[in-house]
Amino acid sequence: MITVQARSKFAKYPSPAAAHWVHTRYTQLGGRFVNSKSEVDPRFRDYAQEEMDKKEEQRSKAHIVTKKVTKKVTK
């Protein structure tokens, strides 16, 4: 809701001015910012999405292949 209002209020979105306005408006409406996931109320966390993100991150780490570097000597 707030970002939709910001898009209509500012000609260029996202912009520093729009971001500041969104931040201020969010806090005026009673929104709070948290430092970590553990501070989020458990009723509002999406545990299924967090688990999928964790599995995807593990899969992407597993697909990192390092190629052995060999030194060729040319004569």
Describe this structure in words.
- There is one protein chain.
- The mean pLDDT is 85.
- It is elongated and about 70 Å long.
- It has a domain at 1-30.
- 1% of the residues are buried.
- The chain is an all-alpha fold and 75 residues long.
- Helices cover 49% and strands 0% of the residues.
Task: Please provide a brief summary of the model.
This protein is mainly α and 75 residues long. The protein is built from 3 helices and no strands.
Assembly status: single chain
Query: What order do the helices and strands follow?
Result: HHH
Secondary structure tally, helices: 3
Based on CA inertia axes, which overall geometry fits? Answer: elongated
**Low-confidence spans: pLDDT under 50, at least 5 residues?**
none
- Round the mean pLDDT to the nearest integer and report it: 85
Strand element count:
0
| Beta strand % | under 5%
**Which structural class do the helices and strands define?**
mainly alpha
- Terminal CA distance reads 69 Å
Rg is 22 Å
**Main pleated sheet:** none
* Helical content (DSSP H or I, runs of 4+): 40-55%
Task: Label this structure with key terms.
75 residues; mainly alpha; 3 helices
Write the layout of secondary structure elements.
Blueprint: H1 2-9, H2 16-28, H3 47-62
Helix pairs in contact: 1-2
